[in-house]
Amino acid sequence: MTENFQFTLHKTDGKARRGQIDTPRGEVRTPAFMPVGTAGTVKALYPEQVRETGADILLGNTYHLMLRPGAERVARLGGLHDFMDWQRPILTDSGGFQVMSLAKLRKLDENGVTFRSHIDGSSHTLTPERSIEIQKLLDSDIIMQLDECVALPAETAELERAMELSIRWAERSKKAFDDAKGRALFGIVQGGDDPQLRSRSAAGLVDIGFDGYSVGGLAVGEPQAVMFKVLDDILPELPEEKPRYLMGVGKPDDLLGAVERGIDMFDCVHPTRAGRHGHAYTRFGVINLKNARHKDDPRPLDETSPNPNARRFSRAYLHHLVRSEEILGAMVLSQINLSYYQELMDGMRNAIESATFDQYSMAVRDGWARGDLPALG
Q1: Long-range contacts formed by 63-67: CB under 8 A, 24+ apart
Q2: CA-to-CA distance for 54 and 33, rounded, in angstroms?
Q3: How many Å apart are CA 110 and CA 169, to the nearest integer?
Q4: Is 233 marked active-site?
Q5: Where does the chain hold its CATH 3.20.20.105 domain(s)?
Q6: Residue 147 annotated among the catalytic residues of the structure
Q7: CATH number belonging to domain 6-267
Q8: Rounded distance, CA 262 to CA 228, Å?
Q9: CB 58 within 8 A of CB 88
Q10: Average pLDDT by stretches of 10, the chain with 377 residues
Q11: Count of alpha carbons within 13 Å of 10, Cβ hemisphere only?
Q12: Prior bond to 239 cis, omega within 30?
């Protein structure tokens, strides 16, 4: 175990990168996918089940945890790791995205954002300093600067205003962080789909100096091609020796394309949310278990999956659980989806190590394109 945050880049294959983040609470193999534990739990799963899927690190959400149960309460109870019984690394986001998307009656100014809780209407103020304080109280291993995220499409003037504000907030976040031992602070590149604004944001953040660099403001309504172009433009401007994190992304095809362009870290609620809605991610692509074609199908979801539940339960049974809205259906499919995401990340890591990333990516996409076999009978 290391006493400090470290990132080591082990191998590259084209722009794809294989590395490792070391923290006092353990290592994170990259490329890495972080399951989202929004309110102190990855929905429908025990912590040990999340770990069994292959996850090295989780994401916790500052906005939700500050509202309930409260950061000070979590600190009194030993920090988020003990509170949710996850003793490996945790990254917390800054709360900015949720404030912009969920909060009621928000008011943004230079100091921060004042908003009313979507839970009970209570008033709160989130500043760069308060965001860092909350994340320290939660005892996060990787802390994010507070930023303003603008949904796309947006006018250039609005993107520029939010980007410049985010840089000023990055400076304040860095001062509030004060090189907390054993922790890391990441800056967030903003600027929407404007390459010049993105470049200015990246240069400003690199000048301030962070332990890692995130690309924010994507997966907010733009087509995948726009997201990939932003990554093509901006990633060469970020330090090679620091980890690169694409926030809030995404579906398996997004992950493949982003790793191909040089991203090291991801988070997204999609795999667990999809599981709760009856969708399973597999080497065949996504399978909608609400579909009636599965109701008499005795085959397992995927007999070659490393996840035992994908081999254990029949498609007919999973269809029954989903259609009956049984809790077990959400639990099983959420775990299967997270397992597939981690299997995909592991496959990409191995392919980069063996310099076969292009072949691996092509084989995976071919499997999705072929799709599932027709149901029996």
Answers
A1: 63/93, 63/95, 63/97, 63/98, 63/99, 63/102, 63/103, 63/126, 64/38, 64/39, 64/98, 65/39, 65/40, 65/92, 65/134, 65/138, 66/95, 66/124, 66/126, 66/134, 67/117, 67/119, 67/122, 67/124
A2: 9
A3: 8
A4: no
A5: 6-267
A6: no
A7: 3.20.20.105
A8: 11
A9: yes
A10: 90 98 98 97 97 98 96 98 98 89 83 92 95 97 96 94 98 93 96 97 98 96 96 98 97 98 98 98 97 97 96 98 98 98 98 98 97 65
A11: 17
A12: no
Residue type, 45: L
Annotated active-site residue in 267, 297, 302, 372 = 267
**In one letter, which amino acid is 208?**
I
Q: 13, 56, 93, 141: which is the annotated catalytic residue?
A: 93
Contact 256, 265 (CB under 8 A): no
Task: Write the pLDDT tens digit of every residue in 242-300.
Answer: 999 999 999 999 999 999 999 999 999 999 999 999 999 999 999 999 999 999 999 99
Answer yes or no: pTM beyond 0.90: yes
- Of 139, 215, 129, the closest CA to residue 174 belongs to 129
The secondary structure of 324-356 as a DSSP string is TT-HHHHHHHHHHHHHHHHHHHHHHHHHHHTT-
CB-CB neighbours of 171 under 10 Å:
16
Three-state DSSP at 157 gives helix
Q: CB under 8 Å, gap of 24 or more: what pairs does 317-321 form?
A: 318/280, 318/289, 318/294, 319/289, 319/290, 319/291, 319/292, 319/294, 319/295, 320/295
* Neighbouring C-beta atoms of residue 371, cutoff 10 Å: 11
What is the Cα–Cα distance from 123 to 115, expressed in whole angstroms? 6
Q: Are 20 and 52 in contact (CB under 8 A)?
A: no
User: C-alpha angle 141/10/173, rounded to 5°?
Assistant: 30
- First-to-final CA distance of the chain: 55
What is the arrangement of strands in the sheet containing 26-30, beginning at the earlier edge strand? Answer: 6-13, 16-23, 26-30
Q: Which amino acid is at 44?
A: A
The pair of structure tokens assigned to 108 is 């943004």
Please state the separation of Cα 180 from the chain's center in Å. Answer: 23
Give the closest residue to 213 by CA, choosing from 234, 242, 191, 237: 242
Residues 306-317 as b or e (16 or more Cβ within 10 Å = b): ebebbeebebbb
| Of 54, 101, 130, nearest in space to 336 by CA | 54
Residue with tokens 């998307």: 101
